Amino acid sequence: MDIKTLNFNIKTKGFSDIIDITNEINKCIGESFLQEGSALIFAPGATNGITTIEYEPGLLQDYPEFWEKLVPSSQTYKHDETWNDRNGFSHIRASLQGNSLTIPFIDGKMILGTWQQIVFIDFDNRGRNRKVIVQVTGK
To answer: Is the pTM of this model over 0.85?
Structure first.
């Protein structure tokens, strides 16, 4: 069993910006030269998340709208009083979403559903430069 740790950077717009990172994850698995195992995808940070979604225009609108209803950005949060950065909502959204995901792969290919893509979501109230860590374990 081998473990390879790779990473890549992305630029985001913030405010529930959804970025399809499926191709980057595929590249990392390919660069690992492992054929079977799992890829742990982790996004360091307290205001971002990782999940799977069908990356299509309707859901790219629905998903941010869902988060706005669930955890409104217009509400004042105690975190905002601490740091005066008005991004308390982004921390709550990120904690509910989670910032890691594990995907199995066989023959160097991820086992994903037909309409399933891996996405990075930046919940912060501004654009950021983000790093995504991909730890590939297998043989």
So the answer is: yes
